[in-house]
Amino acid sequence: MTALIKMMNHVKSGGDLEVMGLMQGKIIKEVFYVLDSFALPIQGTETRVIATGETSEWISQLVT
């Protein structure tokens, strides 16, 4: 439930901009269970997403 709340807060914070994030979870018997979510510091529109070097650094710190 925490992952869903974090995703909804992230969606609301974007206003008219498209937002992007990561979901973390596990697969049990072909079903993916979302255990957590992470908002990414990325700006987006209907046609593109702009990821900067800061975004890449943020993701690499998250997964290590």
Write structural notes for this entry.
This protein starts with a helix and ends with a helix. It has one domain. With 64 residues, it is α+β, with helices and mostly antiparallel strands. The mean pLDDT is 82. The chain is globular, with a radius of gyration of 13 Å. The chain is built from two helices and four strands, in the order αββββα.
Quickly describe the structure.
36% of the residues lie in helices and 33% in strands. With 64 residues, it is of the alpha+beta class.
Features:
alpha+beta; 64 residues; 2 helices; globular
The helix/strand class is alpha+beta
Order of helices and strands: HEEEEH
Query: Please, what is the average pLDDT?
Result: 82
Oligomeric nature of the chains: single chain
**Termini separation (Å)?**
24 Å
